[in-house]
Amino acid sequence: MQRNLLQLFYLISAVLFVLGLRGLSHPKTARRGMFLAELGMLLAIVGTLLHHEIVDYRWIVAGLVLGTAIGAPLAIWIPMTAVPQRTALSHSFGALAAALVGFSEYARHGAQLGGVRVAVIGVEVMLGSLTFTGSLMAAGKLQGLIRGYPITYRGQNVSNLALLAGMAGLTVVLALSPATGAAFYAMVGLALVFGVLLILPIGAADMPVVIALLNSYGGLTDAAMGFMLDNKIQIITGSLDGSSGFILSVLMCRAMNRPITNVLFGAFGKVQELPAGQETKKPIHQTTVEEAAEILGTARSVVFVPGYGMAVSQAQHRVRELADMLKGKGAAVRYGIHAVAGRMPGHMNVLLAEANVPYDELHDMDQINSYFSETDVVVVVGANDVVNPAAKRTPGSPIYGMPILEVEKARVVIVCKRSLNPGFAGIDNELYYGDNVLMLFGDAKDSMVKLATALKQ
Amino acid sequence: MIDPGLIGDLYVFVLAGFLGQYVISRVSPLLHTPLMSATNAISGISLVGSLVVAGAGHGPLSTTLGFIAVTASTINVVGGFLITDRILKMFKAGR
Asked: CB–CB of A103 and B24 under 8 A?
């Protein structure tokens, strides 16, 4: 296909992509939007396949078939609770593709391209390589293949910054003397290592930020690939993808009241030293299934607050069944969802939607907080830090200042929890000692089933 | 010193970034997970660059790297759109 005509194809694709993303502003228009985006993708691929530079289709077909054979089952059968690791994994695939294409460009043209172009290739391969290993690490941590605890050591930030400086320095060397292959390959090696080291100190609770950040890096990598190949559709898409990841990272950070530098360099959640003297154990109020069911049975308004614990125990369906039962008894049921509940942005919404909870019952923090004071019962299912009032009243707490779901304002709060162990951040939850708070110990799914059975009687 | 092509690309990059800020900030927080899988699918557009590398007959190294790149990008395009649709299908309004 003629180059100019192909560019027109790409322009239409870009427009369809933007329209597709715009569709995501509401669940009603989302699927239609995605259809437009798929159309755009098809157009771009078909147009490219007709490109005159392509002379041999054998490896292309093989790649398309293999990619479909891996990608489709992964998307169709993966449980919804594993969507965060699938997302991280796909960031690494995208980054791998970009890095390899850049690698091939340098290996083929080398210095003939001139300093500026080679530096562009360098930046592209660098972003691709570090996003590749970083995303693999994130996926490993989310899947539990690598321990979720932050791994820290002395001089970590200094050595990471030194690596970054090294990569930047080698890119400058490449720009000045593009023929220095050694500089290129050394830079790729450093970038691969850097990606791993960047994710090591990050704890599982910070994953929503990190996954969004890697999304943003992936977008930048794509855009860099577009610069390298002088291909505007990739620049546009990469830029959109990059802004999306960036906006999500900012939103997640705001929801935790932490600057992004603190997530990357702070190693949150390793050891939180509590000030001495605050260790005095206050009494908690433990409850039984029967008592909790009785309270729920008379409630007129109930709010469920889910957290990662609900995902771990796959309790979303049982939560919905309990909610249906309460609705049958005439209670108004809502769900309060904190932006960083779970392991990726929007994680809880997806799990509850999977369990057939209508989306108009899902409320974000700003919508639900004013409602708690008129709520009879709040049921906390596997959420911890996002309901910890220490964020509002204990200036020394590591989560002080974080916006939280103010569940303690409700008449009664029932907390379903495995044990009194602190959450990932390792912070004692002041909520549990409140006078209106009842602790129901046990597996979340189990407790939901038992509550529903007790309510039937 | 810097060729005009790169400058044009820079225009596109910056303006698309602003467009992204505008479009993405209107996405419902309900749909942040499908947003990530959707942008992931769309970023599989790196497939078009990979296709040329895999099929232009530039020699065994380029073809092999291109083949892996085509595979990896296809995983994202196919997998990304499929899972996005699977997720979006689950979001239903109340009766």
From this structure: no
